Amino acid sequence: MNIAESRAGIVDLCKRLHARNLLAAADGNISVRISDDEIVITPTARNKAFIREDDLAVITLDNRVVAGAPSGERLLHLEVFKRCPLARVVVHAHPPTAIAWSVAYPEMSELPREALSEIILAVGHIPIARYAEPGTTQMAESVRSFLPESRVMILARHGALSWGEDFEEAYNGMERIEHTAQILKSAHELGGITQLPSAELERLYSLRKSLERARYEESRVTRATRARWRTFHFGSDAPSA
Question: Does domain 3-190 have CATH number 3.40.225.10?
Answer without folding.
Answer: yes
